[in-house]
């Protein structure tokens, strides 16, 4: 095994390096079945985090993981399954996408995989967005099954009425009361300190 | 304002760095998210332990990028404007590998950096150093069949920041990397050999294992240097974990 390259913070000045136009528009406005997901990123004091970057990666409604380039320059037709959005001055982000479905044979309920980057985070955080309507699949999900009700709620998108289709809110609390569940996905599974 | 909110001296921060360095390093080489010398971690590092869970099928795959995403000129940061940027022209090249040493092929590598004066093209950068009208500082490339990437840019300057009094970042280029699984995602920083600021910098020192620190520093490579044109640096990047390679995509 090669020794890995350590992580370093994304810092505060990534705005001209990472976000791209349409980064949150996984599908164009008016796409049948489109949903919006939005929320606020907050720190341990409850203050909005205006310099976070979130990435979302997901299956489509067909339950397939997209293997399709073009996320950085979207053609308006192809579903790439990848979104990247920076928070604004109020700590808010927004994306428009399709509902994920579970791949056949998956133990996991439908979800979006999420990475959180920010100044002050020396190593990004992984989390997931689940949807409350998948009651049975959520009950069987290996991650959700090991969480108590309070922690589980931090991973659940909350329906809140979208503008042009169903809308959901998903807030990220980096630390403290209501802290979002963040994941250790390392292959070894050995617990590591945060 | 309480005393703890006043900016610390370098001496105080250096003592905290030394204290953290005395603890056993993490086996994986990554920094702990809660690292006191880097003040911004205080309210942003989670307090609860990460929840261990197997990666989902989604997380075992990664987005793919191709010719539609990245134009070749994006890898030459000196050619994004009408004129040449000021500073020392450099070539930065290397390979992206997984933990087993397999190349990460046709995958996206993104960089961003300050200009030669140590100033970012960003509203939040208050450093009173000049912007360069011929330098933005963002670049992209795709790795080739061997996992190689190559950027042409200018050497970034060191810059001050407000972590503590007289805090200066060593010169660095920010890198963003994807592997063949979402679990391999990495954002990191590449440094230049021999920088006198290494010992003083909380972000570099957040990697407390000395050997792991060395893996953040590019090597000067005279074989990469081009006569009469640019100095060459080589920096290989190893991503977390080992995962199956998904099918390549046409046009990638
Ligand atoms: Fe920087």
Automatic annotation (TrEMBL), chain A:
Keyword Ubl conjugation: no
Tagged with keyword Oxidoreductase: yes
Listed Pfam families: Dioxygenase_C
EC top class, as a word: oxidoreductase
GO MF term list: protocatechuate 3,4-dioxygenase activity
Coiled-coil stretches noted in the UniProt entry, renumbered to this chain: none
EC number from the UniProt entry: 1.13.11.3
InterPro entries membership: Intradiol_dOase_C, Intradiol_dOase_core, Intradiol_RC_Dioxygenase, Protocat_dOase_a
UniProt entry keywords in alphabetical sequence: Dioxygenase, Oxidoreductase
Residues of the Intradiol ring-cleavage dioxygenases domain: 34-176
PANTHER family found in the cross-reference section: DIOXYGENASE, PUTATIVE (AFU_ORTHOLOGUE AFUA_2G02910)-RELATED, PROTOCATECHUATE 3,4-DIOXYGENASE ALPHA CHAIN
Family: Belongs to the intradiol ring-cleavage dioxygenase family.
Protein's name in the database: Protocatechuate 3,4-dioxygenase subunit alpha
